[in-house]
């Protein structure tokens, strides 16, 4: 009879490290002659096929994380299958860790590193769900404001030039998350000319179809364009917490919004 090269305590330790069942851990230690590191790798290889099959399952839940340090900020979205897992303490902690890890990566779109992918594989094994890195962005330079809604499913990150109170920046981020419609750009300069022309042309056609003279139709069209820009560009939107002010009114003199990012879990 072959003597086991591991103890019940070793099995328990491997369970705590991987979150997997006792029989899987016992089998892994037996196959690895009691070597804890080799057993963990054995489990990873053994379960790889199962994890790959899970990628076909829909992952419509998840959580957003934001990290800010010095002159850098990162926002990431991690997706999973169920809200139960998305609210799990380990999942929440992982999202926060990955946002911090993104700060060490090059500015721009975040591409998961080998270590990030390993952390995601680990939680896929422990939860049995299709967990995936959906997207991320790393910004550099200036100052930042951030807000994550209490459920972790909506968030905003703002980058400014100049100095502004943190509470003001948080309020603007809350506005970006809550405002309907969400802003499509910072100012009218960010709205595609094709969009403006389409709105203008549609308004003129409607006015002419109702028998309005050309001059009146043109004025109505300009009014429609102006209303669209007021409702859809961040600086011109009325602040959700005080509609007597626009976002532009909240900014101290000389402060500019350089960029904002708005994430909703499951959206692109």
Could you give a short description of this structure?
With 268 residues, the chain is of the alpha+beta class. The protein contains 10 helices and 9 strands. The strands form 3 sheets. The chain has a 4-stranded antiparallel sheet. It has a 3-stranded antiparallel sheet with strand order 5-6-9, with helices on one face. It has a two-stranded antiparallel ribbon with strand order 7-8.
Question: Could you explain how this protein is built, in words?
Answer:
This protein has 268 residues and is α+β, with helices and mostly antiparallel strands. It folds into three domains: 8-54, Helicase, Ruva Protein, domain 3; 61-164 and 255-264, Tetrahydropterin Synthase, Chain A, CATH 3.30.479; 192-232, GTP Cyclohydrolase I, Chain A, domain 1, CATH 1.10.286.20. Helices cover 47% and strands 22% of the residues. The protein has helices at residues 8-18, 22-31, 36-54, 83-86, 89-102, 114-127, 166-178, 193-209, 214-232, 247-250; strands spanning 61-69, 72-80, 108-109, 132-140, 143-148, 154-161, 238-239, 242-246, 256-264. The strands form three sheets. A four-stranded antiparallel sheet has the order 1-2-4-3. A three-stranded antiparallel sheet has the order 5-6-9, covered by helices on one side. Strands 7-8 form a two-stranded antiparallel sheet. α5 (89-102) runs antiparallel to α6. The longest helix has 19 residues, at 36-54. It is elongated and about 95 Å long.
